[in-house]
Amino acid sequence: MQPNKISSVSNPRLKAWIQLYKGNQRGRQDHFLVEGYLECSRGMNSGFELLGLMFCPEIIDPILLSNLLQNIGTHVQVFDLDKKVYAKLAYRDDTQGVMALFKKSEMTLSDFRVRQDKTPL
Asked: CATH code at 64?
């Protein structure tokens, strides 16, 4: 899978992702961003639909990137971001060079299950 390269901070897709930091935009677009390897992995393992994976090759550990790429579907768009583009998009400083775009899912109280082996507190 060949990633799409984004090297300009004026890229319209980048601007749309940045808008997702605003709560009203997340609600309108039904998407949200997560930053960091652990957060991306948790989102992928939690049943959220992964729409896009963005990484900065100058920052991310190649092994971590390989682990993520092995676990994504063919419909997921992958983006290779320049360091300056990634810096503009990242909200936190310690994101390990990777971010993911997920589709929000609608959940109701009946969707939640209490594990029988744990005591809910």
From this structure: 3.30.1330.30
3-state secondary structure of 101: strand
**pLDDT at residue 54, as a whole number:** 96
Answer whether 87's CB lies under 8 Å from 12's CB: no
For 13-42, what is each residue's pLDDT tens digit?
999 898 888 777 666 778 899 999 999 999
Helix count (H) and strand count (E) of the chain?
Answer: 5, 5
Query: Cα separation of 9 and 92, whole Å?
Result: 17
Q: Classify residue 116: in a domain, yes or no.
A: no
For residue range 56-66, list pLDDT tens digits in order: 999 999 999 99
Quick check: is 114 in a domain? Answer: no
